[in-house]
Amino acid sequence: MATVVQPHKRECPVCMNDFTTPKILPCGHLLCRECVISWMDSKSDAGCPLCTCPIVEHQGNLSQSSVGVVDALPTDSVMEAIVESAGMLIKDDICNACDDLTAEYICMECVEKMCPSCVKIHKKMVATRSHDVESVSTVTPERLAASRPALCADHGDKQAELFCPLHHLVFCALCFSEKHNECPNVRHLEDEMKSAENALGSLTEVLAKWENNLQQAIGNLTVRTQAANAVEEQNMALVDKTCDRLQKIVEECRKRLKKLIRDSIGKFKKSLCDVKSELDKRLGKVTSHKHLVTRATTVRPRPALIHAAQTLTDRVNSVDLSADLEVEPWVSPSPDIRKQCDDVGKAMRAELQWMELELADVEKPVLVFHENCGTNICLTNCQRTAKRILPATEGHGVVMSRDSMALNVLYEVKIDEINPPTEKGVSLGVTRFPPEQRIVPMLSEDLTESIIIWESGIRRKEINKTSNVAKALKSLKVGSRVGLLVDSSNNLHFYADGQDKGVVAEHIPMPCFAIFDLFRNVTQVTALPTSKR
Q1: What residues contact residue 21 under an 8 Å CB cut-off, 6+ apart?
Q2: Strand partners of residue 151
Q3: What distance in Å separates the CA atoms of residue 371 and residue 436, rounded to the nearest whole number?
Q4: What are the C-alpha distances in Å from 200 to residues 161, 252, 480?
Q5: Cα–Cα distance measured from residue 434 to residue 413, given in angstroms and rounded to the nearest whole number
Q6: Which of 178, 257, 360, 532 lies 20 to 30 A from 272 at CA?
Q7: Residue partners of 89: CB distance under 8 A and separation at least 6
Q8: What is the Cα 226 distance to its own chain's centre?
Q9: Residue of 102, 98, 144 whose CA lies nearest to 121
Q10: pLDDT tens string 97-149
Q11: pTM for the predicted model, two decimal places
């Protein structure tokens, strides 16, 4: 079957013309032979102009000339045939026989354009009546290239019947008897074509498989990039929130300390003002009496002066003229202010330490489910939410951590949905099998190295006490959390709602992966961020 190639795909991406001797680069892109040579001559380390992959695969080829390197590249004979067929279809729409009439048809085997009259003659001739004649407007270069018969390499007018793998040539029976009768493994062309088709089919399957694998890998990287972007955004928001909180603390401290200073100094200043006011009053009295005394001395006659002196003396003696007044003691607020500043410094240091701890969580492991979790589970929320999509009677919903567990880190999930609410069930555990190797159900007897915890106990060669575990698992509800932690001694702890329910298994072989199984009527769980304990 011919591969359908769009018209623009027949153009060389460098010269933008139809391919001439198209060469297949190691990356799979096509370029004209002369374009590759010119491109390599223009740069010492020229790569593919489309994807920058090296044109020379092996370092040993660096010493060769560009012509030698390009000639060693395989030529795409299929593209050559398509380009040639396209040229036949678009050139001179004139009947090959009449030379003066428009050609409306083309024989797919003779590759000749014909007018309606010649088509009738073509159909009447014994040698050509079985040929496939079609309208020129409906024939594509790909179909024309695929329908063209294979011709003998030496006798271009004879159809090839045989193939010589030694010389890689197709030829007629006459050439076989004259030139290739001693060549080994000469085969019928049809048999070789079938082998080539089978090989191409196998290559298509292999490439499709790897294409799917690479797309999945790119998808996984995209998901991780999105998760990294989300973490970046969260931590940027955390920094802003913390700095806003620190700024608020500073502003509150500024207001509080300024008020303390104003209250303390203001009280002392008021006392000074009160004393000054009283002294001003006394000064006024002194000044007034001084004027009276001066005036009496200056203008009053002698008898009156005697009386005035007695009167003013009595008045002055009755007025408090002392400059001694007690001022409120000044108590400096400096010690209290220093204490307040010290307290603010401690609070800010605590806030900064808290922020550093929060930001350090970027480096800690995060529980993300592996994409290889079967057809019964749908993953969303950057592979952190697992929803069972089949009824409870049709199997479990098994999800596993994408990465191996870290020591002293709690891996837990939150129950999102239970349907109906009166019935519930979930199991969890660890396994040594990486997620990509898990091809059997989690509860299979084959997983002898796995530790599975469920309502009735623990499945493993060694069974520990399960009373706390069973009680916790039987009391699950929407919003409940269950989790696992492997401590520094490789002991497995079971957690319920953030509380350690004890060691359920000892000496866990590392590395291991966390597994969670939704069964009965638990339909959705969400992985929570991991935390160190």
Answers
A1: 32, 33, 34, 75, 80
A2: 159
A3: 9
A4: 21, 76, 55
A5: 19
A6: 257
A7: 106, 136, 139, 141, 144
A8: 3
A9: 98
A10: 787 787 878 887 777 788 888 888 888 887 787 788 888 877 877 777 776 77
A11: 0.44
